[in-house]
Each structure stands twice: as structure tokens, then as C-alpha cells.
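Notes from the 1:1 (GR / supervisor)

We went over the backlog. Supervisor wanted to see one worked example end to end before approving the batch request, so GR pasted a single chain during the call. The sequence is below; no edits were made to it. Supervisor asked that the structure be written out right there so they could see what the output format looks like.
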Amino acid sequence: MKSSYISLCLILLSISFDSSAADEGAAVVDIDGNPVQAGVDYYILPVIQGRGGGLTLSSTGNKTCPLDVIQEPQEVDNGLPLTFHPANSSQGVVRVSADQNFVFSAASVCVQSTVRRLQRDDSISNFLITTGGVEGNYGLETAGNWYRIDEFDSDYKIVHCPGVCDTCRVVCGDVDVVVQDGVRRLVLNGDGPLKVMLKKA
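Structure output shown during the call:
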């Protein structure tokens, strides 16, 4: 009787864990098929060849700081590595459609963080992906700092649509690239989402 009770408890516990994992969503995988780990350096690279390289930071337009997120012009350039920090800090792997901070692993000449954030740019009549965001502190006041990786065809795309507030409207859109003055700038809702893959640095 006691043995049957223990077996039943183990089965229920197993079902509970499986259900919890399913609720979290599938793990994002890198180009080698391994789950992407939180806090580990990765490159974000375009899937489609001939349209630039990885992501990096640069001054754009007439401003020096904060540094904006751009795409390397040459396909052979991986750009700068970055780490992912899930809103749910207990997650050791990056989950599909889960809000994350994207933090570049680089020193900046600007006295600001390298956490990605969203900023309106009237020169392109769009929202630009830049830096200077706050890591953590998940909530409406940090809404512009959260991104997620969604499945797109058989690859991935980067999306900004944080679930920080059930009763608030936040800016939502796919991250894409627009070319302005020869610079490949990351924005929301360009001609189509930038299809990406992840490579461990």
C-alpha cells in the first residue's frame, strides 16, 4: 500500500513538472541545436545570406550617445556577443516568447548600460533599438527594455511586445533593419521581420 502511494506521488510530481515546463514554452536553440543558456554570450546572426552580418553598437545620426543597435554591413562579421536575462530569473534557459533583457557584452564609451531599449526616432518615423536600458525590474516603467525570441518559419525573429501589464497598451512589433545613410539600423516594423539564428560565442 505504501509503495503504491509513493508511486502515485512520483507520477503526479512528474506530471506537475511536465506541465510546468510546457507552460514555460520551448527552449530557444542555437545553430548547433543546443538550448540557449541565460547569461551566456551569443551572437545574433541573420539567416538570409547577403544581407549584412551580426548585431553591434554604434553612434548614428548626429548623436554620440546612447549607442544604437545596428547590423554589421559585412556578412562575415559576427558583431558583438550579448547575453539574455529572462524576466523570470529562475529560468536557466531562454524560452520562446518569454520576455528577456538583451545585454551586449561590451564596454561602452557612453556612461550608460548596454541593455537594449526602445526609443522613438522622428527622423525615421519609427521606434529605434538603442541602448541605455535598465536590467531587470520587470514592470511598466521598464517596458521598453524587454524583448523576446519568437519562432518564425523554421527559424527565429526578435519581437518587442512585453507582457508587463494586463490593462496597459504597450508598443508591439517585429524587429527589422532599415538602411539609412548606409547604416543598417534596427527598428520596429520595417518591411518584414529580421530572421535570425543564434551562435554561441
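Supervisor's comment: The chain has a mean pLDDT of 86.
Batch request approved.
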